[in-house]
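Lab meeting prep.
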Amino acid sequence: MQKKSFTVLLITLAFIIVFFLSVPILKMFVGVGSDKLIETIKDGEVLASIWLTMKVSAWAMMFVLITGLPLAYIIARYNFPGRSLIESIIDIPVMIPHTAAGIALLTTFGDTFLGDFFKFFGIEFVGTEYGIMIAMMFLSAPFLINSAKDGFRKVDVKLEKVARTLGASPLSVFFRITIPNAKKDIINGALMMWSRGLGEFGAVVILVYHPMTTPVLIFDRFNSYGLSFSAPVAAVIIGFSVLVFLVVRFATSKLK
C-alpha cells in the first residue's frame, strides 16, 4: 500500500512539471493557427532572422569546440593550482542575468581599448554578427565545456597510456582515442550550447539590436504590434528548434 501511494505521488508530481513544460508549447501552435504559421514562414524577415540565429549560434558552437575542448581536457586530466577558480569562471555566465552579461560585453568590446584592438583586424562587436556570436558564446559555452569535461573524465586513462606506449603521439591519442570515446558527451554539450544560443536575447539585444536575431525580432514585433504579430514568429522558431533538436538527438542516440 505504501509503495503504491509513493508511486502515485511520484507520477502526480512528474505530471505537474510535464504539464508546465509542454502545454505552453502546444498552446503556442494551437493558438496561432495554421494560416498564420504558413504566412509567417513565407515572411522574408522572419526567415532571415531564423537563418541568422541558427548560423551565428553554430559559429559560436564551433569556436568553443576548437577552444573549449582543450580547456575541458586540461581540467579533466590535470591537477593544477587555480583549477577550481577556472571551473568557477566557466560557470559564472550561467548564473548572472543576461542583460548584465550584455552590459559587461558592451563595456569590454564596445568603444574601448579592446574594441579598438579588434577593429584594427576588421572585427567589430557592436551591431554586427560578431557581436551576436560573442554574446551567444559567452552565455552558452559552459554547457559544452562542462559536458565535454564530464565526457573526458569517463574515458579510461589506461587507454591513452597504452596508445602512448605503442608509439602514438599525444595529439594522435587526443583525436583518435580520447575524443571518440567522449563523443556522446561532446555532441550533447554542443547541441545544448547551440540550442541555448538560439534563445539568447538579453545580451544580444544590448550588444546588437540590428541585424535582428529571432528572439529580438519577436520582442520588436511584440512591442510594436502586440501578441498577434509576435506569437506566430515565436511558434515558427520553436518549431524549427524542436525539429533540429530531435534530428540531432536521434543521430546522437545511434552513436556507440
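Slide two material, second protein:
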Amino acid sequence: MQEQYRTVAREGVHETEINRSRFICALAPAATEEEAQAFVARIRKEHPTATHNCFAYVIGADASVQKASDDGEPGGTAGVPMLQMLMRREVRYAVAVVTRYYGGVKLGAGGLIRAYGGAVGEALDALGTLTRQRFRLATVTVDHQRAGKLENDLRATGRDVREVRYAEAVTIEIGLPDADVDAFRGWLADSTAGTARLELGGEAYGDA
C-alpha cells in the first residue's frame, strides 16, 4: 500500500475562458469507479448543450484505475492531458469533468491539450487538496478505572481516536502510522502500568 496520497478537498467547479471558449472544470472526490461514473453522468446532465464533456478519473491509492475520455475532441487532446494533470499532482480517488462551450475560435491540438490540462490544474489550485496517510488500525483494551485518563492522553498527544466502546472492559480503536507502533507500545505500557492490551488490525487511510 502507498504510504500516502492526495485527493480533492471538496467537490466544486472552476471556470476559465480561452479564445472565447468556456472551459468549466467540475472536480469531486470519488471512492469507487461507480461514484466517478455517476459524477460524470450528473455533470453531463447539467450541461446537455455543451460542445464536449470530457472526463478523467483516478481510483486507488496506487492509481490502479485510470480512465479518460475526449468526448469528441481530437484523440488525446482532452481526457489524456486531464488525466496527466491528476497524476502529476499525485491526486487519487478523484474525478474531473471539463465541460467546453465552443466560442468559435479553433485552438489546435496543442492549444486543446494546454486548455484541458490547465483547466484541471487551476481547479485543483482553487479547490485545494488533502493528504491522506496510511494507518494501522489498533485496538487498546483497558479497565474502566484507567479508560478516561487514557482516552484524554491519547487525544492530547494527537492520536487518531476512532471509536470508544464500554463493556466489561473499555476498548479504544485508534489509527497509528506503522512507524509509530513500537514507540506507542512502550508509551501505552508506561501510561497504564502495563495493564492495557494492544491488538493490531488491518490498514486504512486517514487525514494526515
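Talking points for slide two:
The chain has a mean pLDDT of 93.
The beta strands are 4-8, 12-18, 21-29, 52-59, 65-69, 94-101, 129-142, 160-166, 170-176, 197-207.
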